[in-house]
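Sat 14:20. Reprocessing the chain from the morning session after the first attempt stalled halfway. Input below, unchanged.
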Amino acid sequence: MIIANIVAYIILIIGGINWGLIGIFGFNLVAAIFGLTIGSSIVYILVLLSAIWLIISAISSHGRIYLTSRDRN
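Finished this time. Tokens:
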């Protein structure tokens, strides 16, 4: 579960950078890399699933997201 949390954070950071670029410069990095193809849709679906994962993970662990095994103590 810790690895899934780290991967979800990385994907959300990528999504956040993309949305920041869209908001500030009007530049969609995902569309520039993948074009308007199934690839960009997969990236957006992964960002959605990462957000849902971290929300469920926080709820199930009473508001804490664990990134290392030492955090559980």
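Helices lie at 2-25, 29-34, 38-60.
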